[in-house]
Amino acid sequence: MGIIREHIPEFEFSIDVAVVGAGACGLTAALAARDAGREVLVLERDARPWGSTSMSLGAVCGVGTAAQRAAGVEDDPESFVADVMAKTEGRADPALARLIARESGPTLDWLTAHHGVPLLLDFKWTGLGHSRPRLHIPPGRNGEELLGLLQNACGRAGIEVMTEARVTDLYADADDRVLGLRIERPGGVVEHLGCGAVVLATCGFGGNHAMVTRHIPEMANAKYFGHEGNQGDGILWGEALGGAVGDMTAYQGLGTLADPQQIVVPHPLLIEGGFLANAEGHRFTHELANISGMCVPVLAQPGGVAWVVFDGRRHEACVPHSVEQRQLVEVGALRRGDTWAELEQACRVPEGTFAAENAAIDTARSSGTEDRFGRSFAGLAPLAPPYYAVRVTGALFHTQGGLQVDDGARVLRPDGRPLPNITAGGGAARSISGPAVTGYLPAVGLCMAVTLGRLAGASAARLCTDAPAAA
């Protein structure tokens, strides 16, 4: 896979804008390019669109949205940028953070008002780095629904999504202008598509072990819980064309992957009063201080595992709207006890350990103080029987580094000049999480996907010269 500059074939057919990848970024980019009057084709390597979007919560953060205003929430770009810089300890790209702060709200409003993609303001995730309620979630509260809503919007807009179309190479001239793409189809069929501009929406590189080992060596031997198609293709193509990359060491690594069931334990169980304990029954961290980097402290525990401990009230509240919680029940991942002693026995932790940790939390709560890890449980009801636990481990979920882009999501060279006709977004582009695992804010991944997707599609439409004529 790479860039082909010689022996350019005759293209069987041509399109104005070719979008590589049918996740949230690619579908949003396609909508924007189509809104600008261009003919668009989305190329998806799998038999059906799936990828990182479907494996997510489906939450997108947005600033200054109509949904926020309707709920009386005052938010502004300056507050968002301040949150980003605080979470990343000042190491995120401030220009990119300002761009996302300015454009995320209009992007969500555009998707809702013009393309029928409902995104409802969620209040449960306030905090965790966000100073305002700004997470927007589809009604079904999952990424698969969000992807389906975007697919339906593309269908209404007359955008074709070609599945089982694996892009293997880009054809480019001496000036790094992309002329077309080489596509492998089922049965070994190879097609050549000419294009006027390209949007790279190919996700990150979490499934590419060589790239993970090179850029994120501390996660080289960790489990990967993400789409195997995240091979970094877009990043590699962009680099081969002369594009610059940034923050390739950044990633999201959750510590709540059910072990061995490989299902993400819903975070509201922790947010609303649950706690983490290791295999010896002891708490070891502030569970909410860095949810997206919790893989680090979890993997540091004996055996690299921990228990998410909660109660029946939290469980029952989670089941109706969480596919993952229902799946955990179906596969028998939950341990249950009518007393702490019964739960400790079910989890094979030393007697009295869970009970002691819960008592310490109750003491801090009743005294109005933070616990020994600096976490406050104020306003959260105490855990009550029956008690539950799920064994979890840490895993790499997705990468956050990628191609450097400008305000129009055009891929930039190291000297700041844009490449002629190629844009990028989502996991193929640099995010605003800084260079480490500690900088990821909840819902920033999909925020980057749809916001840069919209900008990338609009820019590709403007950059689109006449596509090479079909043979």
Describe this structure in words.
This protein is α/β, with parallel strands linked by helices and 471 residues long. The chain has two domains: 2-250 and 400-463, FAD/NAD(P)-binding domain, CATH 3.50.50.60; 257-393, Succinate dehydrogenase/fumarate reductase flavoprotein, catalytic domain (Flavocytochrome C3, Chain A, domain 1, Alpha-Beta Complex), CATH 3.90.700.10. The protein is 32% helix and 21% strand. It is built from 15 helices and 23 strands. It has helices at residues 24-35, 51-54, 66-70, 77-87, 94-115, 143-156, 209-215, 233-240, 268-271, 295-299, 312-318, 323-330, 340-347, 353-367, 444-463, and strands at 2-4, 13-20, 40-43, 60-61, 120-122, 135-137, 160-162, 166-172, 178-185, 189-200, 223-224, 245-246, 251-252, 257-258, 275-278, 305-311, 335-337, 387-393, 395-396, 398-399, 402-403, 410-412, 418-424. The strands form six sheets. Strands 1, 2, 3, 7, 8, 9, 10, 22 and 23 form a nine-stranded mixed β-sheet that branches. The longest helix has 22 residues, at 94-115. It starts with a strand and ends in an 8-residue tail after the last helix. The model is unreliable at 466-471 (pLDDT under 50).
- Arithmetic mean pLDDT: 94
Helix content: 25-40%
Major sheet details: 9 strands, mixed
Low-confidence stretches are 466-471
The CATH class of the largest domain turns out to be: Alpha Beta
According to CATH, the homologous superfamily of the largest domain is FAD/NAD(P)-binding domain
CATH architectural name of the largest domain: 3-Layer(bba) Sandwich
Radius of gyration: 23 Å
